[in-house]
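Look over this today:
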Amino acid sequence: MNDVAAIETEGLTRRFGQLVAVDGVNMRVGSGQFFGFLGPNGAGKSTMIKMLTGLLQPSAGKIRILQLDLERNLVEVKRQIGVVPEGLALFDRLTPAECLVFAGRMYGLDPQTASNRTGELLDFMQLADRRKGLIADLSHGMRKKLAMAAAVIHGPKVLFLDEPFEGIDAIAAGTLKSMLQRMILRGATIFLTSHVLEIVERLSTHVGIIHHGKLVAQGSIEELRAGIEAQHGALSGAPIAPGGKLTLEQIFLDIVGGSRSTAEELSWLG
């Protein structure tokens, strides 16, 4: 990893009528980082990803991806990134093989390269025996793996993932995590949103936390942990992880003001 930013925003804002979904976000993700982007439901995570990938026009602010101004270089940026949206956006009437070849060709791969990489990805994702069936007949976990394969077939320099582990089993999750770790080793940058904080903590080197549309924290997990401990020591909520360190869950709850005590106050649960 080096000091060059793979993702930068300045004053990034998105309004929907009177609602300010993303509010003046200044964010920097270094090249080669595995960046976990966290926030409560409705905090603005998916809106951020849509703007960063050119799917949604900002109301104000600047975005640079791989040092390129996104608004001025949208096509060039899209050639160099991969995206797995929360809704997956797959073509149900295609076969997995057809889908991957199509994705490869759209990214500019020649027919032979697209075909070769399709075979490799189907094998890696354990989808080779489903290559000729329809995507509509795949399970949710298989569809997740196929969407990931379509997003990486061209070897993107930046990969955006919106809840990639939601609703999949341990085997599929292990396959996806293995691929992501390989990409980081090859110098790619990964921008991940997930509510599964244990996975984010295991995979990410750096995190950003958005709350009510504002970026309230960003940095390495160790930096955020040290900042909280310097403020008021170990927290009294969730158990401390082995070794006495605050978990990412504790860090997250402290920063966004979350509480785990509500259930204790419900009369019928007491």
